[in-house]
Specification:
Elements: H1 8-18, H2 21-40, H3 44-56
């Protein structure tokens, strides 16, 4: 008998069986908002504030 591997498809199956439709919709909405922010917000002031936040949180980014 072969051990089950931890694959993306298996994780998706687990998520769809344990999460409600509302939870999945909220998760996808959050991902869409984050993607929009990362792709389209290129204002230097926003970039600088996020950069300063990362440093304030102790994250080394360069």
């Amino acid at each position: 008998m072969q051990a089950e591997t931890d694959t993306v498809r298996r994780r998706v199956d687990i998520a769809t069986s344990t999460l409600s439709g509302t939870q999945m919709a909220l998760g996808l909405g959050l991902l869409a908002a984050l993607a929009f922010t990362l792709l389209f917000v290129q204002d230097p002031m926003v970039h600088d504030s996020l950069h300063n936040f990362r440093h304030g949180a102790g994250i080394t980014c360069h």
